[in-house]
Amino acid sequence: MALTEGTAVADLDIALVTVRDRIAKYQRQSIGEQDTKASLIVPVLRALGWDTEDLEDVKLEYKRLSTDNPVDYALFLLREPRLFIEAKALGVHVDDHKWTSQILAYATVAGVEWVALTDGNEWRIYNSHATVPVEQKLFRTVRVADPDTRPGETLRLLAKAQMADHLIDVLWKSDFVDRQTKDALVGLFGPEPDPALVRLIRAKAQALSPADVRSSLGRLRTTFDFPVAASPEAGPVAPPKEAKTAANEPASKGEPPSAEMGEGTPWRQVSLGQLISAGLVSVPLEVEHHYRGTDLTARIEGPDRVVFDGAVYDSLSTAGGMARKSVLGSPTGRAYPQTNGWGFWQYRGPDGTLHQLDELRREFYERKVVSLGDARRAG
Asked: Taking Cα atoms as reference points, which of 149, 126, 158 lies closest to residue 44?
């Protein structure tokens, strides 16, 4: 059961907006590597929960041996380096093979699985332990200046709390399997189609000759789309199917089905810290959920402090996942069930009825600010 120390989702969102503005300002000024680190990289690391002034968290110019070349940042968990970050000046091509080969080779020797190369704008994340050619070790690439690459979603995987929970390892495995599957599928339908595929098609279309099938497959244009698996902290996502089908039981009294939340919910980026600052949430706030016959309770104590079963977590979703784990156990390949905490946790209104926490985010977004703390006192 991991105790987390990360910062709120809003902190990273704010940091990325600041860094994006600085990139636009500095990209034509040829700023050096040290300025890139100070103005573009350190703010992101701090927002991800890494204390850049604490040597137990982050070591600068790290060397495993005195004869080694230093790594710009080594991020530590339990006194072991978990992530290497190699920084370059803004505008330097971080996809250069020489940078990649150098840092991955060093990470492999040092036993560090995760590596990031960045110029403060582009972040390229690699798995050094993958037993594949260098170019296939690349996990994801995002650019802070390009919101379409969804930098927050990927960089959030490098948060201290998320690294402690090994979420990036789980997503790497699914992405890696999808890539291998896609390559195999492309090979089946390539210019020289797989003989087994030709035989399979002929078995279902017996009037065709092998030459007919091969010719037809040569004209075929195929596209295989594997959606990128997302971090649960990237914003609310649609609740798992089990919300409707697990245990095949109706929702308990006072526990309405979770509403669908996703790209169509513009309030999904509202943070717990914003709700507390606006007075919509008065801490400490008790939240609950009646799940599969079990009453689960947690307590919100701050913008990045949610307590469940005596353990402190930095998000509603992690606390919700651990709550579900206490009932279901851990799913295969994950430390706990992926959970949308905003839809899972509920609070009681003045009349005693339960409401999803996500309703408060929507109120904040629509500027219908009614103080939950005042309502509770009035009740």
From this structure: 158
pLDDT in tens, 174-228: 877 877 787 778 778 777 788 888 888 889 898 999 888 888 887 877 776 666 6
Q: Are 235 and 263 in contact (CB under 8 A)?
A: no
Question: What are the domain boundaries of the chain?
Answer: 9-165, 170-219, 235-378
Query: Which of 334, 300, 326 lies closest to 314 in space, CA to CA?
Result: 300
9-165: CATH topology is tt1808, chain A (3.90.1570)
* Predicted TM-score of the model (pTM): 0.55
Concatenate the DSSP letters of all residues of 234-302 into one string: GS--PPPTHHHHGGG-PPPTT-PPPPP-STT-GGGG--HHHHHHHTSS-SSEEEEEEETTEEEEEEEEE
**Look-up of token digits 């890696």:** 176
Considering the chain, what percentage of its residues have pLDDT values greater than 90? 37
Please give the order of strands across the beta sheet that includes 311-313: 311-313, 305-308, 294-302, 285-291, 346-348, 354-356
